[in-house]
From TrEMBL:
<protein>
    <submittedName>
        <fullName>3-deoxy-7-phosphoheptulonate synthase</fullName>
        <ecNumber>2.5.1.54</ecNumber>
    </submittedName>
</protein>
<dbReference type="GO" id="GO:0003849">
    <property type="term" value="F:3-deoxy-7-phosphoheptulonate synthase activity"/>
</dbReference>
<keyword id="KW-0808">Transferase</keyword>
<feature type="domain" description="DAHP synthetase I/KDSA">
    <location>
        <begin position="17"/>
        <end position="254"/>
    </location>
</feature>
Length: 263
């Protein structure tokens, strides 16, 4: 279902009032984790002002340590809905279990499957059954074939609206959190009609690398970007070092303007 051979036209789909697909660079921005209603609203207003059309925010956080902040769960989803009502932004939230899928279905416009769950096949089927738009992140050590097969799980379960998100893979290099595989964008463009999103925030873990890699991603043919933004990165409950503050996000978006208009 994901193979370009049987579906040569690029796929485009709507997420609330915004579109993901060709002729458009979709910007998904927001905090790593929803921390409070106030925090989310402040960030939602700021990212909308700079041109983001989808608000991201984690309510179920798959943290490496069980002692790290795990997310506000259903309360976080409610705040996402409030922020969407106030700003008009579409919303995306990661789901980590069947229970989270059932909750997120009620509150947000797009579901995210995180890198750590890319091959959680039961979760992929649950996500597919909703028929909702889905952002499928690449697994930390997944080949492009394994990633496309994960997309097949979602599509064959009922959702044709899948976007693939390159977020860096694990290599021997330790200077960045992961290694952004931009060649994956080129490979995917040859092999699938599904839209491709690049997440330079999780790929590098370093905020100063977000802008150059975002530009490179668009040059490679990406259909959108996921960029983490926080009102106070130094005190973020997760992923502070890679999060942009509002001024930096504004300057990154300014820098991206010529690239976005070329797309
Ligand atoms: C996230 O988007 O907040 C996240 C946890 O990303 P990934 O699954 O790519 O690590
Ligand atoms: Mn994060």
């Amino acid at each position: 279902l994901a193979n370009k051979k049987f579906h040569p036209q690029p796929t485009e789909f709507a997420v609330k009032d915004t579109k993901i697909g060709p002729d458009n660079i979709t910007i998904m921005s927001g905090p790593c984790a929803v921390e409070s209603e106030e925090q989310l609203l402040t960030i939602a207003r700021a990212v909308k002002k700079e041109g983001a059309t989808i608000l991201r925010g984690g309510a179920y956080k798959p943290r490496t340590s069980p002692y790290s902040f795990q997310g506000l769960e259903e309360d976080g989803l409610r705040y996402m809905q409030t922020a969407s009502k106030e700003t008009g932004l579409a919303t995306i939230c990661e789901v980590t279990s069947a229970h989270a899928v059932a909750s997120a279905f009620k509150y947000v416009d797009m579901l995210q499957v995180g890198a750590r769950n890319m091959q959680n096949f039961e979760l992929l089927k649950e996500v597919g059954k909703t028929g909702m738009p889905v952002l499928l992140k690449r697994g930390l050590c997944a080949t492009i074939d394994e990633w496309l097969n994960a997309a097949e799980y979602i599509m064959s379960s009922g959702s044709s609206k899948v976007a693939l998100c390159e977020r860096g893979i694990r290599t021997y290099e330790t200077s960045t959190r992961n290694t952004l595989d931009l060649s994956a964008v080129c490979v995917l463009k040859e092999r699938t009609h599904l839209p491709v999103i690049v997440d330079p925030s999780h790929a590098t873990g370093v905020r100063s690398f977000v802008e150059p890699l975002a530009k490179a991603a668009i040059a490679c043919g990406a259909d959108g970007l996921m960029i983490e933004v926080h009102n106070d990165p130094a005190h973020a409950l997760s992923d502070g070092p890679q999060s942009l503050d509002f001024d930096l996000f504004a300057s990154v978006m300014e820098g991206l303007k010529p690239y976005i208009s070329l797309a």
